[in-house]
Amino acid sequence: MKKVNKFWLFLILAVLIYGIGQGLIQTGILNAFYSNMLILMIINIILAVSLHLVIGITGQFSIGHAGFLAVGAYVSAIITMKFELPFVLAIIIGGIVAALAGLLVGIPTLRLRGDYLAIATLGFGEIIRIVFLNIEYVGGAAGMMVTNMTTWTSAFVCLIITILVIANFTNSRHGRACIAIRENEIAADAMGINTTFYKVAAFAIGSFFAGIAGGLFSHNFYIIQPTNFGFLKSFDILIFVVLGGLGSMSGSVISAVLLTVISTYLQQYPETRMIIYSLVLVVVMLYRPQGLMGTREITDFFGKKKSVKGGN
Amino acid sequence: MEWLQQLINGISLGSIYALIALGYTMVYGIIKLINFAHGDVFMVGAFVGFYAIKGWGLGFFPALLFSMAFCAVFGVLIERIAYKRLRNATRIAALITAIGMSLLIEYGVIYARGAQPEAYPDNVLPSTTFNLFGAQISSQSLFILGVSVGLMIILQFIVHRTKIGKAMRAVSHDMDAARLMGINVDMTISYTFAIGSALAGAAGVIFGVYYTKIEPLMGIIPGLKAFVAAVLGGIGIIPGAMVGGLILGVVESVVSAMGFSLWRDAAAFIILILILIFRPSGIFGKNTREKV
Questions:
Q1: Is residue B241 packed enough to be buried (19+ CB in 10 Å), middle (13-18) or exposed (0-12)?
Q2: Per-domain boundaries in chain B
């Protein structure tokens, strides 16, 4: 009963936020600048939540997430621009192709651990970018023109689906297996969890949603270029997850929202923006390495005060 | 004799990678941290060398030494400010701090002086070209190779023949045991950062003299590639970094020579992934058994 209530509460809240956003955009209270910021915020939240599944839940340190964003962005752009198929189909196919790319990258690299995994994913992310740079069909370095199709509605629906799927995955048997892998891979293996399967599955699901975000991303800007998907973009996504707290989905959502607002306002001063970003990153790591929320969720602060004891 | 030419270009480029890779590998060997900011120390070295040559009219060697000294201090500062507190932190926290420091240095430099590139004056070193079996070899590339090899020999001497080198080897072998033996671990780590950063600074000046153009974000790609070189040779192993750097430089030149210059950057990462999948301990590394 309790769980069902939570679900409906979430859905009502989502519809409410959607309605407010849609109303403000429709009536023109929010101009193009702000509505664009809202869409960018949603894209960033999807990216942050998808990477949260890989880093925060499964504990696999991936810093090549922008590569999957690029796959989703380019594939969906090809589908709408070259084949002229509908936008919805483009987003779904973009996600699926990104998930396949995730499988392809994940199966060999997820055998590695820690730093090596991080560097290997960074390498794969760069390779994906360089591949797009060298394909003339998608415009090479000059980039590819894409019509603006992303709306508040489409972006918001994608966001709700992403959050629901990842939250449910986390609370399922599979999610618990992933958390066990994060806590101690060897122990998880010894308990009979197929660690490779779950690591690759989490990676592929994360890539799928990064691909969805890519579809929204490419159809929000008028042009996509390989330089949009360098490893600085991967670091941006990583920063959302780490600042929010590794293992806290609401934390990554909150930090994605905050950082999008900050970086939108600092758009005129890109250097200042990056300096603030990096300073925040270093200071948080030095003084609060568990991030904004730690592993807690925002829902933990409401409702019954259940005392959480044992285990650290 | 196109191939010989490319081989020589590759070795020159590779010696720069090797110099940067040495810093990565030494730091990783001692505190198991991928110092992402190392590529930016290389960039700072290039700029310091540039200002020393252009602003103060120093010659190549004084500028090189000045840049090395500056970078040594700079590297120690980075270590003391950011990394020292992280000795017992998780690997992810350390890695993210390193990424943060890297961004901070890059954009700090852009903030301080703007993002516009600078060009090294081209009369820093005498340039004549020799003709060896039909390949055009500039005296500059030979000179650069000589300087790099000289620095590596000095490094080998420091690591294997001096007291501080002995301390460095001991700390990288087992930090706690070294501390029990009365080695000042913090000091040794600072020395490691100083030496590694000085080599990166030297690489920066050499890079500037050889390729002329320098800019605040120039450290990212050579930094990453030097890291690939360090992994290729076996991270934590000093001769491995040298060999890895040279191999990487030659491979890149060959890929460019075959007409795939746009794929050059991908070549380094493909090497990285292949080596990580098939031989994660690198060419010179020993397989270590994992204990539960």
A1: buried
A2: 2-121+132-219
